[in-house]
Amino acid sequence: MKIIKIDNYQSWYIESNDVAIIIDPWLDKIMQPKSNLFINRTRNEAALITEEMISKVSCILISAPFEDHFHEKSLKRFDPSTLVLTSKPSEKKLRNLGFNNIETLRAGTQKNIGDLSIKAHNAGFPYNYLWTFSFEIIQGDKVLYFESHVDQPSRIKEKGLKADCAILTTEEVKILGLLPLSNSSETTLKILKELECKNIMIQGSDPAETKGLISYFLKIGKENLGIFRSNDIKIYKDPGSEVII
Fold first, then answer.
1. What stretch of H or E contains 243?
2. Is 80 exceeded by the pLDDT of residue 130?
3. CA–CA dist 50, 112 (Å, integer)
4. Using one digit for the tens of pLDDT, what is the confidence trace for 79-125?
5. pLDDT number for residue 34
6. Cα–Cα distances in Å, from 187 out to 75, 173, 179?
7. What is the DSSP string of 103-136?
8. Domains along the chain?
9. If 0-12 CB within 10 Å is exposed, 13-18 middle and 19+ buried, where does residue 38 land?
């Protein structure tokens, strides 16, 4: 299984011998029209994806219904008959875009896509109340673990999860300085130790680049990548970074 970070934020492309899966595709340079005052983000380069890669996608996985995960313009580039795995709030929006092969994922459900298996888990607090989910992508004895926002080492220990690679946040973000929206590097290190995982691919990179009204309510901590290096954990953050497990 090859995992590729295809942009500078949180879009991912997973390839196996049989299939390709894309996670939360935002493929162009502008997240939302300027008329969207709540949340926006821009960048100088579009996602590192070709039309050939798009044509190979067997499954689109949308991990959350929010605008920085559900990018309508990018989704329109995919065949509407492509299987989409997502949460309930995204289903109606997807049908409005013309997609006709939609399945909702809930904790405990498992879906086989070619030689890959997707196993859903509850999201971490507070996202477990907001119709999002974490998941594993499994190929044989190899496991990718994905949580797009907040997790806790105790959840990993309770579920007995192990992984060869993990996609996790590393810059703590709190709304109004209270409610967590992503993990600190220190918490993520503890999660990786529970997972016995030596590869981290960074999710939600550089949250300070996100603009709009929401940015006025966010308190962003400092990323500390050095603690991963000192624990012999390989870091993958840049667009085009890839891990093969």
1. strand 242-244
2. no
3. 25
4. 999 999 999 899 999 999 999 999 999 899 999 999 999 999 999 98
5. 66
6. 33, 12, 15
7. EE--TT-EEEETTEEEEEEEPPTTGGGTT-EEEE
8. 2-244 (3.60.15.10)
9. exposed
